[in-house]
Write a structure and sequence with these properties.
The complex is a heterodimer.
Chain A (H helix, E strand, L loop, with lengths): L4 H10 L8 E2 L4 H4 L4 H5 L11 E7 L8 E2 L2 E7 L2 E3 L3 E17 L4 E20 L2 E10 L2 E12 L2 E20 L2 E22 L2 E13 L5 E19 L2 E20 L2 E21 L2 E14 L9 E2 L16 E26 L2 E26 L2 E28 L5 E18 L9 E4 L7 E9 L1
Antiparallel strand pairs in A: 1-10, 2-4, 2-23, 3-6, 4-6, 5-6, 6-7, 7-8, 8-9, 9-10, 10-11, 11-12, 12-13, 13-14, 14-15, 15-16, 16-18, 17-18, 18-19, 19-20, 20-21, 21-22, 21-23
Chain B lengths: L4 H11 L30 H15 L11 H20 L4 H14 L1 H13 L17 H6 L18 H28 L4 E5 L8 E5 H23 L16 H7 L10 H13 L13 H5 L1 H22 L12 H18 L3 E5 L2 E6 L16 E6 L2 E5 L1 H6 L10 E3 L5 H4 L2 E5 L2 E4 H7 L27 H11 L3 E6 L12
Antiparallel strand pairs in B: 1-2, 3-6, 4-5, 5-10, 7-8, 8-9
Classes of the chains: A mainly beta, B mainly alpha.
Amino acid sequence: MRLSPVRAGVAFLLLTAAVEVCHAQESPWWEAVGLDPIWLGSGPLFEPGSSNASVESHNAVDLRKPLRTDPSETRGRFVPCTDTGYISLCGGSLFDLAQSSMGGPDWSVAPKSSFSPGLEGAVRANLYPLEATGTLRSGTGVVAQSVGLQAKVAGASLLAGAGRTQRWSGLEIATPSGSIGLPWNDVADSGYLGMSLPIGPFSGSTSLWGTDRSSPLDSGLADSGRSLGWSVGLSVPSWHGAWEMSLWREDRSLSTTGRLEGKVFHQQTFSSARAEARLHWTGGDWEVQAGTRQYRLDAPQGDLGEPTLAWNRLSDQSLSSLYAAEFDQQDYWSGSLQLDRWDAGFRHTWRWSALSVRAGLSAYLWTFQADLRIRRLRVVGLIPAVSLDPLASGQGWFAASGPEASISWNLGEWGKLDLSGSWSAPLDGNWHDHLGGSGGNPSRTSLPLDPWSLWSVGLAWSQ
Amino acid sequence: MRFPLCAIAAGSLILAACDMTGGASSSSNSNGNSSTGQAAIQILATADQGAANSSVQAIQNLPDQIGGRLDAATRANLQSANATFHTDLQANPTNTSASFGVAVTALALKLDQFSDTLNRMWKNGLKVGGSTPAAMFRAMPAQVVQSQVASARVLTTATDSLATIHGLQNTLEANFLPTVDSVVTLLQTCWNDPKFAYRFPVTGFSDRDSLTIGRGDVGIALASAQAVRDYLVWMLSQNFEVGVSGQGFPNDYAWLDTLGNIGDTLGPQGPYQTEAFQNLQTLAPTGSFFAVKTGDLARVQAIPADLLLAVATGKAAAAYASKYQTDDRSGLVQIQPSDLVNIDQELDSVTVYLSGPHTYVQPPHTEVSYDYSCYDTLTNYSSNACMTQTTYSGYSITVDVSKLITMPDHKVFLPQFQWNNVSDWAAKGPYSLVNGSTITTERWLSDNSPSIAELGGKIAWADPSFGGAFPGFKTSQAVLAKLDSLNEKPISSTPLSGRLLPRAVGF
């Protein structure tokens, strides 16, 4: 069975395409390893927390071949604030609607759609030069709180914060003998340290953040891991315009363990990294920008006896332990996946009184590299044998281009209304399959990824 | 309790190759290679490891495109390895590594025959594991375990000319049962060796290069092989033959197909319909069908005692594995002490059921059902509608499994009935139930589809205890009442609060 890197990557993360009889209803791995298709495909239209009310929707990396996948997400928030000068209070509701389905010639993942309403509250005390903030968010299966303290002195600022996020989730694995529902709960503690300061005519900023996550339960699915990220930014004014450069990177490590009736049926470690670099120039009503977003995932093969999936241990029958001498199968997943996006574009802004219109054109290049495999240990009638099933090994790319536009309407004392949208159409691409043909000759087909157009649209109100 | 009989059967088929050395077939009293298991087993020589590995790979990778047959190079390699192992064994009869090598290579060399049998089964509609005859080798263990086709028929040497049930039974009796006997003997010898251990090389792992087959593993395989032998003996001792030749039907079993396609269109009857019903009348209630064959009753009656031995072996092997096989450096099967308690309880229950009448009690219990369709809609994704908890009433039934196994004639389960005259088939159907003076025709049954309760007074058994296998049944009415209770009815149904919470994206 030959897979595309995208399919294999998704299957790898979801653990669902390992075999036809296993089907996971949920996919918390996506978030835990930092793979966000919306981030790779489009990116947010509005800065988080910059508006009192907003709705934005994205359709990212929508593919028809060689696999069918259509991740999309719609986010909304309505968080009005009151400001007394020293104290600001915000409170309201938010929702997140995410949908995705995936499928190939001989497999499918059931459509996943989640509607997650939630509440958000924030308080900010402005005691110049100090500013303290506290936030609390509660949604379906998640509660998050954070505190922060910022000091501003002579144009420089220093920010420190900490937060905790508790999640209650679950995974359902369906096998021919029945369904197994496994709880997956975890707690993530995070810390943040940031600084910005003027350096002559320049303005620089840097930050550092980290997260430690672990599961309190020793039954069901449990995870543990850490992440560490950093960022630097620099603004440089010049006679021909203003330059802004930014760079950030986040590295994550994750170990997941599955237990059923005291038996460990799943162990896997992951390490991932994602990074973004961007260069932006503004001159009058013109803007030009170029950047890249990159994602890496590595999963080493577990030691013998520590498989990604041990089938006999998925049974809750007491005699199942004895089957290991007759029939047993252990799957060891490993490999690496790399997804990169490169983009460049320009925009022009027209202004009329309270109305401004910004329009531009962008071009995108996505590249994929994958080397994913399953080492499978089978025991049949006391005879063990090992086979290697390479899932995907190859590299590919596809390019897309399209317009983007936004309208900003200043409503005076009523605030500001922003409407943004972007659309891009695929241009070309190919895929070099290192598994194809005898002798390992790579095969090439025209645009085998066959992406649909990508789009984003959003509406925001801020005051 | 579900005993993994099919898993045991299929697993032991692999082990059965210990006897498939190309030499004379063994009998149930043959020692075969049994004398070779008394010493601690050594690791195979490098050359022999390669031969054994290639054999296992051949087993695991039957190619679809050639119907699962060995290619010429693999066959030549296996033949060479098999000869090497034979030479080693002749030089040192206590070299159980060589015995193991002989077994593995001999089994691999049987693959062509194995594949041909699978293909014949495939053509006859007996399909397992996937879309090709060889797919069962790649099927998930659970699928193979659940497959009824993973039975003794697979390795028979039956040809198309022996395509009768009696012919198949005779072939199994002559060719396969002796093999299972010798496997039991060989494994018993290995199990008796307190130092038994066998390291099997595996590649592709950085931390280790071998797995160990431990004494506990062999003991479990021995218990499985003993159970398979008992299963085979029982199957081969029953008269299942329903073939009738020389009536103008295309083959011996075509009359069954004629019966199956009559449906509700009885009468006026064609000659083949009439012939088919007359064939049916010869089977019951007076024929020998579904009864133990003449002369086989003694070995059938020995089955319960032999199964008790198998259970005892299984318990001892599980205890050994739990104590000494703590990881796969010491054995394939690892059992936690807490699991051993459950395993002992399961196996003890088998002992109890084989030792006389015992009442099985299914207490009131709850089951959770999932409605997967509700996941497709947004608002119901995590709603209660996705999961429902239903409570069932439970039941109890007293059964003597030993009597069930050793029953000389299973037609005791048929209710009292009479065959109707051919001229009455259109109005009454081919048979009627008889309960004293109450006659209930097949036509009435098919027209009214009565419930079990509505059959009260219409159906009766000559022996409601069914030969003493169900001693609690004193009357036919009691049988019906118990059958009704076995069809558990839900006594309450409650939607569950969402246990599967969706992971919020964006928090």
